[in-house]
Amino acid sequence: MNNRYNRHIILSEIGEAGQNKINNARVLVIGAGGLGCPILQYLAAAGVGTLGIIDFDVVDETNLQRQILYGKKTLGINKAIAAKERLRDLNDLITIYTYSEPLTYQNAVTLFNQYDIIVDGSDNFETRYLVNDACIISEKPLVYGAIFKFEGQVAVFNHNGGPSYRCLFPSPPPSGSVPNCSEIGVLGVLPGIIGTLQANEVLKIILGIGEQLSGKLLCFNALDNQTTILNVNKSMEQFEKVLNEKPRFEQKELSITCDTDMIVSLQEITSFSEVQFIDVRELHEEPKLTGTNIIQIPLSSLSDQLHKISENRQKIFFCQSGIRSKKALAIAKNHHKSLCYSLKEGANELFLQLKNMQHENA
Amino acid sequence: MIKVKYFGMLTEITHCSEEQLAFSGTTVEELLKVIVTKHPGLKSLNFQVAQNNDIVDLTAKVNADLIALLPPFAGG
């Protein structure tokens, strides 16, 4: 063995034997965003032998304030792939698998079965409950972390007979009721702190040292540095609920991806002048689209400004790639707005389409 | 008096991270009624209640002077 892991090995609590455990460990990280970046960076540096990274999203300029594995050169590149590129330079002795697709009810259990520990760095409740339930079904420990503005939570669930995420929060809050980082903002260093705490729990689980946050929820506030650790009780009822659903698990659909009939492609739009297009990108994003039937309401303020959208016309949300527009659709549906659709394509494609139509009319 | 701590987005409604509240009832559920009367915006939100350092359910008796209200976070 070379010198790379020397500072681990000379710790009597780790030693050669502990480092071997780390080198043989298989850890899957869900989401390579604010939390995923520091988690992956430290686990790769520590020599976790097999790392899995699942993220369907691409690197955006607004990510660079906190997602420290990325830079200008990786803008627009899938996060799992961009993260792997950076981590390969950091440590080429480990194996990294990338999954550039969303985590779904269909792929979760099969994927989790290939790893020892699952780390949740996702950014929405649906995925968090999916991760929890798939961990229960595949009997894997879950290292949970979540952030909100200046505050973070860390816990270890489903480990050594301990409680699960559902024992703490039995069911997800209504879609759109709790904003995420892209909607409300987050202090850049916060996911660094919380993600690093998650990486620490992962290493402690692998090594079997210290006191893991199993059955405990750590709450951290970056503004006053207060750390509170709360005890969470196990609820067998919550485990049974998940296990009872096991036979039907793979038939379930994430609501964010299941409304396929509410997603329209440009080809399917019969009359561009009769629909209202709603641009849910942030105000600075390019290309700018203007027109009498195009309004701009950033996703972050959509629920407050839903009154601005047309009642009677068909409404089509669009964004840069068709992901935020699906979230917008979910919010609109949640507020009982009818005739709402999400554009499959992004602003660039819509821009070209509208431009071509102008040409044809001229 | 009971000290009530608020976490996450709850503080956007309460406009404070903690406060002292007069309470003469028995259960957590009764205490929540007092809190929600003062901050009606909390009614529609999801949160768990911790008494001292333990997450408790609504039927638990209030026997501590520190209660924390804890919402789930989604961000990552």
UniProtKB/TrEMBL annotation, chain A:
InterPro entries: Rhodanese-like_dom, Rhodanese-like_dom_sf, ThiF/MoeB/HesA, ThiF_NAD_FAD-bd, Ubiquitin-activating_enz. Its EC number is 2.7.7.80. Signal peptide: none annotated. It catalyses: [molybdopterin-synthase sulfur-carrier protein]-C-terminal Gly-Gly + ATP + H(+) = [molybdopterin-synthase sulfur-carrier protein]-C-terminal Gly-Gly-AMP + diphosphate. SUPFAM superfamilies: Activating enzymes of the ubiquitin-like proteins, Rhodanese/Cell cycle control phosphatase. The keyword Cytoplasm does not apply. One of its GO terms (molecular function) is ubiquitin-like modifier activating enzyme activity. One of its GO terms (cellular component) is cytosol. Keywords: ATP-binding, Nucleotide-binding, Nucleotidyltransferase, Transferase. Transmembrane segments: none annotated. The keyword Protein biosynthesis does not apply. Residues 271-359 form the Rhodanese domain. Gene3D superfamilies: NAD(P)-binding Rossmann-like Domain, Rhodanese-like domain. Belongs to the HesA/MoeB/ThiF family. Homodimer. Forms a stable heterotetrameric complex of 2 MoeB and 2 MoaD during adenylation of MoaD. Catalyzes the adenylation by ATP of the carboxyl group of the C-terminal glycine of sulfur carrier protein MoaD. This is Molybdopterin-synthase adenylyltransferase. It comes from Zhouia amylolytica. The lineage of its organism: Bacteria, Pseudomonadati, Bacteroidota, Flavobacteriia, Flavobacteriales.
TrEMBL record, chain B:
Pfam families: ThiS. CDD domains: Ubl_MoaD. InterPro entries: Beta-grasp_dom_sf, Mopterin_synth/thiamin_S_b, ThiS/MoaD-like. This is ThiS family protein.
